[in-house]
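Students often ask why inverse folding is considered easier than folding. One informal answer: many sequences map to the same fold, so there is more than one right answer. In these notes we will look at a single instance of the problem. The structure comes first.
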């Protein structure tokens, strides 16, 4: 079996996602196994996972409870529909999720990914306004540099130009808040930056332009992840909440990255003390092992749909695999693992150490900013003139060759290790990055 994985004889059939396909296929970086904090590469090396896969393997790799739960579930009930039918494990998982979610987010809609969770949340927001008799509220407000997956709703409210420019006119009726990155004022901040809360007031400007009666919802990542870790300025999320409340606009937090312990608290809602009306999750909900997403909503939103004749479907939306038995089993075992090991609240113990280690890179070559919160951090590099992204990509390749998986976006290195990382492994990861920064052109 391993031989087959180790030696693929043709790489061309798989059109790889978000990948420089030609570069990869000339010198492939293959992972063939994983355990706890490490991957094993096809050439037999141990690779320290500095990114929890893709910000998702929060409990580390191949954890026994999760593996066993999936094996057992596959043998007992492999698949069952969730349209007009049910299977107990999806209900059990929904209950457990709601128990641990911030107060008031009492119902959960299952999807298969972050992107689908985003689409689901946007559709719930629009439909909610309509069932409340406010059908004129159709506008959606996102934010520059936001990442909300790759489907049409998500790229419309998202703000990463490379993900948008190829795909036509996108959704209509979308506007964007400015991003919160202010390097001149906040560079090398440890944790939450001081400056920039007033950027939330731009929502008032947008409301003045369009009128509140046309706006359904605002969607933001509490901490913008994929664009390169932008931590919200002190008071910014509170302001957004106040302005949304003032104008009857729903607030959606996309916690696909921040959910399930990334900030050292179960959710960003817990970290910042600001509650949205809809909370989007995916990734860590199943430790990334089986694809799944979960969208949390308040009872007020859920109950608004529970009207009309009882034989009618209340919300015309769902996926063949919503609440899939294998995903639900993986999710339940994931939550148990998180709980048994205290992983979702490891912040106070480990985040300060991670912060100091990360900021020790300040004077290394090419570094123009470092940002961090919880167990996520970014090191921004000065781009090579006329060749943006090249320096960071070369750092990524060199890190892999040395034995560390890091992630780069633009000219930013992002680190988000599994929450089981030890202090020694943090040192090791930072040492790899230091060596790479000294080695790249
Ligand atoms: C904030 C946020 N939303 C949505 C997504 C999309 O998730 P997926 O890739 O599972 O569709 C991501 C993925 O990184 C994300 O970071």
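Output (designed amino acids):
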């Amino acid at each position: 079996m391993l031989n087959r994985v180790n030696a693929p004889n043709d790489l061309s059939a798989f059109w790889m996602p978000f990948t420089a396909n030609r570069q990869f296929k000339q010198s492939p970086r293959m992972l063939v196994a994983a355990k706890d904090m490490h991957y094993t590469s096809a050439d037999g090396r141990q690779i320290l996972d500095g990114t929890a896969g893709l910000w998702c393997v929060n409990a580390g790799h191949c954890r026994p409870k999760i593996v066993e739960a999936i094996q057992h579930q596959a043998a007992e009930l492999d698949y069952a529909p969730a349209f007009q039918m049910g299977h107990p494990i999806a209900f059990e998982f929904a209950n457990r999720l709601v128990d641990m979610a911030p107060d008031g987010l009492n119902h959960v809609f299952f999807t298969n990914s972050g992107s689908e969770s985003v689409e689901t949340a946007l559709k719930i927001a629009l439909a909610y306004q309509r069932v409340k008799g406010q059908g004129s509220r159709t506008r959606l407000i996102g934010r520059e540099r936001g990442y909300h997956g790759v489907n049409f709703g998500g790229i419309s409210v998202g703000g990463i130009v490379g993900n948008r420019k190829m795909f036509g006119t996108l959704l209509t009726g979308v506007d964007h808040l400015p991003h919160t990155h202010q390097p001149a004022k906040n560079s090398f901040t440890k944790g939450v930056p001081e400056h920039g809360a007033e950027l939330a007031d731009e929502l008032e400007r947008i409301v003045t332009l369009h009128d509140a009666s046309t706006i359904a919802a605002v969607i933001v990542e509490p901490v913008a992840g994929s664009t390169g870790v932008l931590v919200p300025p002190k008071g910014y999320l509170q302001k957004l909440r106040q302005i949304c409340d003032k104008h009857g606009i729903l607030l959606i937090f996309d916690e696909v990255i921040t959910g399930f312990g990334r900030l050292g608290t179960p959710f960003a809602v817990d970290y910042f003390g600001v509650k949205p009306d809809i909370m989007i999750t995916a990734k860590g909900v199943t430790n990334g092992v089986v694809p799944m997403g979960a969208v949390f909503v308040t009872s007020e939103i859920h109950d608004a749909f529970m009207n009309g004749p009882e034989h009618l479907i209340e919300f015309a939306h769902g996926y063949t695999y919503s609440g899939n038995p294998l995903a639900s089993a993986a999710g339940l075992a994931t939550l148990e693992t998180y709980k048994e090991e205290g992983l979702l609240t490891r912040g106070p113990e480990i985040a300060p150490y991670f912060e100091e280690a990360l900021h020790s890179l300040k004077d290394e070559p090419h570094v123009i900013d470092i940002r961090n919160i919880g167990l996520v951090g970014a090191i921004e590099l000065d781009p090579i003139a006329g060749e943006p992204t090249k320096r960071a990509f070369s750092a990524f390749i060199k890190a892999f060759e040395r034995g560390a998986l890091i992630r780069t976006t633009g000219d930013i290195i992002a680190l988000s290790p599994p929450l089981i990382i030890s202090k020694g492994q943090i040192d090791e990861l930072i040492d790899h990055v230091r060596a790479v920064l000294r080695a790249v052109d």
